[in-house]
């Protein structure tokens, strides 16, 4: 009989924490661990808004998988998952003719974009999704700026940027733009006040769900730096020319970035599993209902916050804690022990507003401005420390 | 009676050297000098291939006019020349209702693009023309690279660059690309050998008119670094998809840069002057035939090389020497002296092949490789020294 096969799909926060826990705790002869990821690197999703704005090199947000995975203990497969069958216990890959088989599957492939029924989003909007898409956002924006001076009529839409969604990612992204745009203006000889930055949000407030005092701080900070907010304003369509708002108003903008939210990965529905907005309501051991050996973590897992009976928002913090617990439980199961139920512990929430400012809550304390921004940076470093220890942290801290 | 009015159109090499000579030699009460330029800065045309490739900041190639012109002696008008009438002695500007009048006019507005009858050049090709156009070339190329990873089918044309023309500018530009492309490939995770750099030239050799040994060196240097040469191959059309060669072959390329040559400024023909390929065959005092007070210098002047009975190619060196002579002659005329005939003295010719190499002839000596590249750099600095003295030279040398 072969060793038990644990297959982890996806090298995001959740997948990597699972693998990291397994390789630390398991010996060679206990299990065969396989990690599948479509890129040879992990990217730090919570930092992607920075390369998207051009304020940070994408290299900061990237960690080669081989530098954090112990290839003596874990087999790494660079491939794209095209589907899986939880009854046959098989995973299908784009470039492999035979399916991967497993005893335990950890589904940690990350989310898909939620369009909320708006038309043209996937065709015409840019997405802060991965390293490739954010490099393109930056280049797209710069290309539009460079065209401005080369058109006879100086088209204002070329230097208008619409950010759809004033949630976490949208606010963090526009915060970076507030830093970047003055530099771009100097580079391309464009007066700063010609450039429009517009944040459009369907909810009546920016950062829905956040503490009001912090939201007010963020909105004022951004407005003072030229951001226009359009609240209670759903986007009906993203076109090749810009966006059409509910009611019919059109805003012409050559750059539209969609940050309105995510839904679960479509592979879950395609595998016949029951989902809520694409996510799986997992049990206390992070398992999909009806499947003893299918674990779903990260953006694809739905867990209800007992305090308000609403789902926790999908975050890196959640995925990381799930990965840690899951690794321990998988090890316990292999050794005949019993698993511990997962409990989410919210350490805090921080949203950056560009390089020098942020807002957030840590413990019971509200943070504003520069001190929040330092906390945010320390938090980034913590992730690199968890992933690759001191040496990786120091390498990234140099950026 | 007012002071004699000298109007200089264009702040390129020729125009600036004229103004620089005038302001050094003339006293306040001798003439009213006006310089017209559409930008508040001079740009170093011979360096534009570098920002176009992204190997150098466009700021290196830019010098603010107010930093080199003595505004106590010279009136600077930032405007675009829309036409002139050499009989009425009037110059028409885009943003002024009244024409500028003059006693002496120096026409130094620079050249237009020569398409040699190829279709679609002005619509679909990029031009290494000015600061705005080269910033756009760079951004365009990078944007295409960023798109490559975001297309399902990995379209090769997105990372194919065609340079039309293997003359001076074309070779210098592709030399920069040879340096830049490996960096871009790393930045966008594209294998270097996927990228195609194609130099297309109608003549049977690259760098027509250059010493064969130097041409062979340049071609081998570039070929070893992945450049494909297509010689004796005129481009018939530039399309939105790439280029169509004579005979019908199509090369798909998202980036096409046209460096095939220049012709005289169309304003000369529009003013009713007789031209040869848009250029004016000036007399020995750099005057247009039939007009005592219309001087044409730089790319718009045609001067025959007595050694081979062919026109000198338009170069920065030629324009600079013309500006120096013309300033002296204008001063002499104001003071009742006689003008000296212009004689071009070829100091040397250097073509860069990226950062670390160049070829050229200085005096009777052929130069190759790094030493040529150092000479080329010194030559750039010499221009900054001529323009703005030691302080400007030192500032630029820091780049």
UniProtKB/TrEMBL annotation, chains A, B:
- FAD/NAD(P)-binding domain location is 5-323
Q: Which GO terms describe its biological process?
A: aerobic electron transport chain
Keyword Oxidoreductase applies: yes
Task: List required co-factors.
Answer: FAD
The answer to whether keyword Secreted applies is no
The UniProt entry, under Gene3D superfamilies, shows: 3.50.50.100
Annotated keywords: FAD, Flavoprotein, Oxidoreductase
Care to name a GO molecular-function term for this sequence? NAD(P)H dehydrogenase (quinone) activity
List the PANTHER family hit by this protein, alphabetically.
64 KDA MITOCHONDRIAL NADH DEHYDROGENASE (EUROFUNG), APOPTOSIS-INDUCING FACTOR 1
Q: Which family does the UniProt entry place this protein in? A: Belongs to the NADH dehydrogenase family.
Specify the protein name.
Answer: FAD-dependent oxidoreductase
State the organism of origin: Paludifilum halophilum
């Amino acid at each position: 009989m072969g060793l038990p096969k644990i297959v982890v799909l996806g090298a995001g926060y959740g997948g990597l924490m699972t693998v990291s826990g397994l390789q630390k705790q398991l010996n060679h002869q206990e299990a065969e661990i396989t990690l599948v990821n479509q890129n040879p690197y992990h990217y730090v999703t919570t930092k992607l808004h920075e390369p998207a704005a051009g304020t940070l090199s994408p290299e900061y947000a990237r960690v080669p998988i081989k530098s954090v995975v112990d290839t003596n203990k874990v087999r790494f497969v660079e491939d794209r998952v095209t589907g899986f069958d939880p009854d046959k216990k098989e995973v299908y890959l784009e470039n492999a003719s035979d399916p991967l088989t497993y005893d335990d599957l950890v589904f940690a492939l990350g989310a898909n974009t939620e369009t909320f029924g708006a038309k043209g989003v996937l065709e015409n909007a840019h997405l802060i999704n991965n390293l490739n898409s954010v490099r393109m956002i930056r280049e797209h924006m710069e290309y539009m700026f460079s065209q401005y001076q080369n058109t006879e009529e100086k088209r204002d839409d070329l230097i208008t940027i619409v950010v759809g969604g004033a949630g976490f990612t949208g606010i963090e992204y526009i915060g970076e733009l507030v830093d970047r745009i003055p530099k771009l203006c100097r580079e391309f000889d464009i007066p700063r006040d010609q450039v429009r930055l517009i944040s459009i949000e369907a909810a009546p407030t920016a950062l829905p769900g956040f503490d009001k005092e912090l939201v007010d701080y963020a909105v004022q900070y951004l407005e003072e730096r030229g951001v226009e907010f359009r609240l209670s304003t759903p986007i009906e369509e993203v076109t090749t020319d810009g966006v059409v708002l509910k009611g019919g108003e059109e805003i012409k903008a050559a750059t539209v970035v969609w940050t309105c939210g995510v839904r679960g990965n479509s592979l879950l529905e395609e595998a016949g599993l029951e989902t809520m907005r694409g996510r799986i309501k997992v049990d206390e051991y992070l398992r999909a209902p009806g499947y003893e050996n299918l674990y779903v973590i990260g953006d694809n897992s739905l867990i209800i916050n007992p305090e308000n009976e609403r789902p926790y928002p999908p975050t890196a913090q959640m995925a990381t804690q799930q990965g840690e617990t899951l690794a321990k439980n998988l090890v316990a199961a292999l050794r005949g022990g019993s698993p511990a139920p997962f409990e989410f512990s919210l350490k805090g929430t921080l949203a950056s507003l560009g390089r020098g400012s942020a807002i957030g809550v840590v413990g019971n304390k509200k943070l504003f401005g520069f001190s929040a921004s330092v906390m945010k940076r320390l938090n980034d470093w913590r992730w690199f420390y968890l992933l690759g220890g001191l040496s990786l942290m120091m390498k990234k801290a140099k950026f």
